[in-house]
Design brief:
The chain is mainly α and about 80 residues long. The protein has helices spanning about 1-30, 35-40, 45-55, 70-80.
């Protein structure tokens, strides 16, 4: 009975050590990226509210997948992102 618990403990402890090693490696390699100042300046309360109002309007018919409303939303977003 003790041998069974010892085997289970070893199996899970090696998994835990492996996961912790991977986590430590990913944290060590993480880099802080400064936000693009142009993008931050482009977002303001009025433009954000305008986009939300447009996308939430009845013209987009709820934006349900595979409908005309979804296609209208996609076209609107493509147009706005290309500006």
């Amino acid at each position: 009975m003790v041998k069974k618990y010892a085997t289970t403990f070893l199996k899970y402890s090696s998994t835990a050590v492996t996961l912790l090693s991977l986590l430590q490696g990913s944290i060590a390699n993480a880099q802080q990226v400064a936000p693009d100042s142009g993008a931050v300046k482009a977002i303001n309360e009025s433009s954000f509210a305008k986009h939300i109002t447009v996308l939430a309007s009845d013209d987009f018919k709820g934006r349900k997948p595979f409908t005309i409303g979804e296609q209208k939303s996609i076209n609107y977003l493509k147009t706005e992102f290309s500006k």
